[in-house]
Amino acid sequence: MTEERSTEGDVPVPGRVRVAVVEDHPLYRVSVERVLAEADFVELGAVVDSVARFHVHRQPAGSVVLLDLGLPGVAGAAAVLEVCELGHHVLVVSAQAEPEVVLGAIAAGARGFLSKDVDGDELLIAIKTVAEGGAYVSAVVAGMIMKDNADRPAVSADVELSPREEQVLRLVAAGERDVDIALILGIGVRTVRGYLDRIRDKTGERRRPGLVKEAIRRGLIGGSGPRRGGRK
To answer: Which helix (H) or strand (E) holds 52?
Structure first.
């Protein structure tokens, strides 16, 4: 029998980050739940083993959801997309950290990606970063993506981006849509698309997964991810 934690009857606590867990491995789920329960800034929400069970608990929108990818039923990027569509910020914690898996999850809307060998301190840092509107990719995952690019000419890395272009690229990598980037930065959607055109011309990356990879290569995703309301 699967043990779960429900959110029914819980009252939101001001100043805390609401965090839920969707993880089907019992021992890992218990370990993560323990780390979260001991963190003074975390308000622990649903702890379940599948996206279907997560739906049942009706976690309040805007929560940070720690999501495994190898789940029963809806899994992988489809699980990320489904949880994001409920209005949550997804932080993937998965043993699957191949570059294509990471990029697929981020393209589906994940705000961060951690490998399962991450320690408790980094997990909490990633949760805070994502809750504040940033993006976070653990060093192990970023290293795997950079290694994947090792045999390719790193021409684009030599092309300098402006500070504003870097802001836009960070937000793209965090899964934001063009209209959301415009709202966050306080600029027009056409202006955002103009920046994206220049970024694509400079880097040679035309599609969003490629732009995510470029952001990781440039060190733009991590503990110093973007914050809402950045400077123009």
So the answer is: helix 51-57
Kindly report whether the global pTM for this prediction surpasses the value 0.90. Answer: no
- By C-alpha distance, which of 27, 21, 13, 28 is closest to 57? 21
Distances (CA, A) of 109 to 79, 102, 119, 152, 171: 10, 11, 24, 27, 11
Cα gap 135→112, rounded to integer Å? 5
Kindly list the distances between the CA atom of residue 7 and the CA atoms of 10, 27, 34, 87, in Å, as whole numbers in the listed order: 5, 21, 16, 16
User: Sheet harboring 64-67: ordered strands across?
Assistant: 42-48, 17-22, 64-67, 89-94, 112-115, 136-137
Q: What is the pLDDT of residues 38-80, one digit of tens each?
A: 999 999 999 999 999 999 988 999 999 999 999 999 999 899 9
Contact 66, 38 (CB under 8 A): no
Q: pLDDT tens for residues 97-121?
A: 888 788 888 888 899 999 999 999 9
